[in-house]
Specification:
CATH topology of the largest domain: Rossmann fold
Distance between the termini: 40 Å
Number of strands: 13
Structural class: alpha/beta
Strand content: 15-25%
Low-confidence stretches: none
Oligomer: single chain
Order of helices and strands: HEHEHHHHHHEHEEEHEEEHEHEEEH
Helix content: 25-40%
CATH class of the largest domain: Alpha Beta
Number of helices: 13
Shape: globular
Mean pLDDT: 93
């Protein structure tokens, strides 16, 4: 896509504006959907087969279901020393901890990026989702930054990661809208701390449990072109870099929505919570309300609901996303 950024449609801003403008009209409360659980699963199965297009909106609940847990055993597998010294109990909150120096900061982030970007998901949740939509006209918008869609085999031209990518660095104080791949650096940093790579390529703590909480000063990552300070490419404030790939994906999402806006569209929302509803949830509600041919489906654990105004156009299925997708895939392939 060769258009200048200003000439390209901005799917990110357009969909947020649509959601914010429309959500004010949903004043009749929420519904859990119509019909039994079995009936709603059957309806979703039919929608996956018959929809002209499928727009998948994915949040953190999808990766959680795939086994990307930020606390508990998985956290202690990579951060026992950070837990002991700083009292950090999970990977999310640790990302905001005021570490004493850059060497410790980047030791933390190398581990965080490694286990949430370069390690295979423990469960095949993303693969099951791909099997359900692989032969359909689909597009994915996600607030997840773990790159699991692409690792599972989804077409990267049909993916829009709105909030960044653990696998990229950007300037700490952006002067240019550029990002840099960090995989090689992450692997160096893990090894420098004493992690050992097994035969399957996965880093683990060595048997003697001796690992360092600091990386060598010379290994602190810098912009490869000018040596400036970098940070992970994550949307945490207004310094987030929207690079060429981000704009290309945003425009592709806008084009996809426009092309199908009057057709039979399934807006499939999976694992989206209430932290950032303006990116996926509210726009999906509004686009369903605007199109009588559209269907909204919410797969979520304890938060599967829809506005009453679109109740007859909605499917709400409560439960673990991975279990739901596995069952759905089994039902589809058994016919």
């Amino acid at each position: 896509m060769s258009r200048n950024y200003n000439e390209q449609p901005n799917g990110y801003l357009e969909t947020i504006q649509k959601g914010l403008a429309g959500v004010r009209g949903f004043r009749d409360g929420l519904s859990r959907g119509i019909g039994t659980r079995a009936e709603q699963i059957e309806r979703l199965k039919q929608e996956l087969k018959t929809a002209d297009a499928i727009v998948i909106g994915a949040g953190a609940g999808l990766s959680t279901s795939a086994g990307f847990i930020y606390n508990g055993d998985r956290f202690m597998r990579y951060f026992p020393d950070f837990a002991a010294r700083f009292g950090i109990t999970d990977m999310y909150s640790g990302g905001f901890f005021p570490f004493p120096d850059e060497e410790t900061y980047w030791a933390w982030w190398s581990r965080n990026i490694y286990c949430n970007r370069y390690v295979k998901a423990p469960k095949p949740v993303y693969e099951n989702l791909l099997r359900a939509v692989a032969d359909r006209d689909y597009f994915v918008i996600t607030t997840n930054v773990d790159h699991m869609f692409q690792k599972a085999g989804f077409d990267k031209k049909r993916l829009f990661y709105t909030q960044g990518d653990y696998g990229l660095f950007q300037h700490k104080r952006p002067t240019v809208q550029k990002t840099w791949d960090n995989e090689a650096w992450v692997m160096q940093a893990m090894a420098a701390q004493g992690f050992v790579k097994k035969e399957d390529g996965v880093f683990v703590i060595p048997e003697d449990r001796q690992i360092s909480m600091r990386i060598p000063t010379a290994l602190i990552p810098r912009d490869p072109e000018h040596g400036k300070a970098v940070v992970p490419n994550l949307r945490v404030d207004d310094s987030f870099v929207e690079d060429q790939g981000w704009h290309r994906a945003s425009a592709a999402y806008a084009d996809f929505l426009r092309h199908h806006q009057e057709q039979h569209v399934l807006y499939l929302e999976i694992g989206v919570g209430s932290n950032t509803p303006v990116i996926i949830k509210y726009p999906f509600w509004q686009m369903t309300n605007d199109n009588p041919k559209a269907v909204y489906c919410c797969l979520n654990y304890n938060e599967a609901n829809c506005p009453r105004q679109i109740e007859t156009q909605s499917i709400c299925i409560d439960g673990d996303t991975g279990t739901l997708l596995e069952r759905l895939y089994d039902v589809i392939t058994s016919e």
